[in-house]
Amino acid sequence: MKPPINIFWFRRDLRLDDNVGFYEALNGDNPVVPIFIFDTEIIDPLPEDDARITFIFDTLQAMRKTLQNHHNSSVAIFKGTPERVFKTLIETYTIGTVFTNHDYEPYAKERDIAIESLLKSNDIDFKTYKDHVIFEKEEVTKSDGKPYLVYTPYMKLWKEAFKTHDLTIYYTNEYLDNLIKNARLPNLSLSDIGFKKSQQIIAPYTITPTLIEAYESTRNFPGLDATSRLGPHLRFGTASIRKILKKAIAENNDTFWKELIWREFFIQILWHFPKTTTNAFKPKYDRIDWRNNEAEFKKWCDGETGYPLVDAGMRELNTTGFMHNRVRMLVGSFLCKHLLIDWRWGEAYFAEKLHDYELASNVGNWQWAAGTGVDAAPYFRIFNPTTQIEKFDKDHKYLKKWVPNYQEFNYPKPMVDHKEARERCLKTYKTALN
Ligand code: FAD
């Protein structure tokens, strides 16, 4: 019999340090083979120059290099369905345990149940750990055990629980010598995976004391580069939430901290209510008679609505894969309320384009913008796309960057009249809700 090994399965935790499941694997009873699977169920629908795939690929190659240079080891990279890949691994190795970290998305939950059962039928243990969040699942609930549906009381209890929470850092990189040695672990190139290098770059994040200190007063202005750009790093795990929180706490900035709690709020909502990916959280809102005009949707996607701040946001998204939060709220409201286009269309468009796309946050925020979700903006709150400029881009810095021709005569005329669109929206929502 071949000597036994354990496996660590990287998913949304692409880092060698402060990684709970990886730490546990390295402290287990066998040498560890670390693996990553480009899951065809997830990657097949993506465009071939998807920036997120390039980012994952580059991150894995950097991890391989570190392990090769310093620990005579590596990360095995596969493409396929996880079930197929695990069947091959079971044939190749004598596996004791597979370690991994929790993933809370509906597809991932089903996938993990299937993999656990495949492993069990081969006498292999499957051990999973909390790594992606501070509090998960049922850890912050109301006194009757039900999930919070409103952010503020959730946030207060989260903070209360955090006071006694042990914010341990898992110094995983001290145990990397427990990886399997001298093994030629399989690698793939981008083209083997079916992709090519993206022109768009996922930038490193900034979390300096200056940014955090100024965050409260600057975060709402899209013309300032004043937010952290942490999104993709938390999504793919190139940043550890524990280390980030340690920094945020050191700077004692409540506002920044609260944004990180919004992320966990939506992750627990998705965990408890997986149907919200397709259904309005409040069922009545699925009666809204969306207009769903395809030509209008295209104008919105292309940043050609004639409302410069909406257009600037969409052009920033299309060009860079990022859009400032303030503008995300506006374009979301504009699509659902001014154009009466189903929030699911907007959610899908963002899912394709956003580098920081995260199912829980995207669905949660889109349902918030449409007024259909938990703790959502009331349906009669309709952002005025013109006065938003006065409030948040007074000097037109953001407009000048993304729609430099916004004052020229040939700039598109507003595709809908604000007042008329507002009234039409209120009427449509009222009809649905009565
Ligand atoms: P910062 O302002 O520096 O915030 C730090 C971190 O806090 C973020 O990276 C994020 O993890 C978290 N955070 C901040 N605001 C929110 C929020 N409202 N909800 C949940 N987490 C938050 N965020 C995503 O991570 N993925 C998405 O797919 C996504 N889709 C959105 C769709 C719409 C319609 C709207 C209105 C917002 C969406 N957001 C999403 C939330 C927010 O816009 C982004 O998290 C933020 O703009 C990312 O930039 P940053 O990393 O510089 O954020």
UniProtKB/TrEMBL annotation:
One Pfam short name: DNA_photolyase
Keywords associated with the record: Chromophore, FAD, Flavoprotein
PROSITE patterns, alphabetized: DNA_PHOTOLYASES_1_1, PHR_CRY_ALPHA_BETA
Domain Photolyase/cryptochrome alpha/beta: 4-134
Phosphoprotein in keyword set: no
Reported cofactor(s): FAD; (6R)-5,10-methylene-5,6,7,8-tetrahydrofolate
InterPro entries recorded: Crypto/Photolyase_FAD-like_sf, Crypto/Photolyase_N_sf, Cryptochr/Photolyase_FAD-bd, Cryptochrome/DNA_photolyase_1, DNA_photolyase_1_CS_C, DNA_photolyase_N, Rossmann-like_a/b/a_fold
SUPFAM superfamilies, A to Z: Cryptochrome/photolyase FAD-binding domain (SSF48173), Cryptochrome/photolyase, N-terminal domain (SSF52425)
Family, similarity comment: Belongs to the DNA photolyase family.
PANTHER family, per database record: CRYPTOCHROME, CRYPTOCHROME CIRCADIAN CLOCK 5 ISOFORM X1
Name the UniProt record assigns to this protein: Deoxyribodipyrimidine photo-lyase
Organism of origin: Bizionia gelidisalsuginis
